Predict the 3D structure of the following.
Amino acid sequence: MLAELKGLNEECGIFGVWGHPDSAQLTYYGLHSLQHRGQEGTGIVVSDGQKLKGIKGEGLVSEIFTADVIAELEGTSAIGHVRYATAGGGGYENVQPLLFHSQSGSLALAHNGNLVNVNSLKHQLEAQGSIFQTSSDTEVLAHLMKRSGYAEHKDRAKNALSMLKGAYAYLILTETELMVALDPHGLRPLSLGCLGDAYVVASETCAFDVVGAEYIRDIMPGELLIINENGLTSERFAMSSTKAICTMEYVYFSRPDSDIQGINVHTARKNMGKRMAIEAPIEADVVTGVPDSSISAAIGYAEASGIPYEMGLIKNRYVGRTFIQPSQSLREQGVKLKLSAVRGVVEGKRVVMVDDSIVRGTTSRRIVTLLKEAGATEVHVVITSPPIKNPCFYGIDTSTKEELIASDKSVEEIRQLIGADSLTFISVDGMVKAIGQQEGAGTNGYCLGCFTGNYPTEIYPDTLQYYYQKG
């Protein structure tokens, strides 16, 4: 989330259950399957029909929720959240779900995304007497709902959601219902499933497989879905705008066994690799992928090019993703800890190294060095996303424009900096076609802002000032 425009940029995962006696345990398993989306903090709030109770902490799902802790969370409905924090955005108070109590009842919120008008909303609410307890933009929704003046929760939610701008997938839990909302552009993935008579909601469909749920459908952009004892009710809080799902969900963030808008992530990544074999034909001896998110693309490149795929890089499974570490120094140390080159595979070989993205260049430089230190005679880097030249305003940690290596450097300059023998990025059209866009639709349906600078929503001046600041 974005908080006070001071660097709280997150990619998170949310999971919810309605109408199951083991809601907390199911949420635990669901969050565990979404752990790749955030490793800095996690929480679960349950409802027993009369009250809400929550437990949260900084750490991994398995660290916070032991069997004894889960046993304390009795209820038939629950929502959960996994998050990561960038510099200045951490702290226990920002771990979600956020839980609020009042004389009229309780409310819990879990949010994936980023609000681009958070500052103006906070100024407005503070002028009306609101006092914020966190630096998370998630809290804004609770204050807007409380001040809406409507009697029913769904009307409060619809009124409040209509004021939000940006990317958001929300789970809203009260004593008697679970509400699910997705922004009008559908920038973040969110799906509905069922488990017997119970309903589940998750950021990714891989969570359904883990808990044994059956996929029903995706939440629609601008939809407020109300789940209670009467079943499902779908309402609109905004007219659906042009869909603009984040392309980085397919490229990097989501698990390969997830489906987003009916498209399997592994298949999309494999197609990106095949596309790169056409856009970047290279004479080489082996193809290897940077684990884990680039393995599918590397397999696709190998199949299409006829160059054998080999496991040239090994990942230390006990080290988290460097892209979502909260500081540059930790990113650099993380790269050294997380990967090893397999000398027996790459020594004396011309290597095609397939990776999903280059953000700051630190990781790519280190991996090229690892391969060459292991004896690779050439390292050709193939990237299955276009150059990231612009910040993401919607919840992905691409930081300020000045930290993006492609914002002011050519492909050749980047190649020299990372030490590769060649460097090729996929084209925007090639990436979109590989994902599975319908013929003739162009790039419609996807957010490409970080590549093209064309964003699906208005970006507010204070947001621009932060992300485009100098120094």
Notes: The mean pLDDT is 89. The first strand starts at residue 13 and ends at 18. Residues 322 and 334 are 6 Å apart (CA to CA).
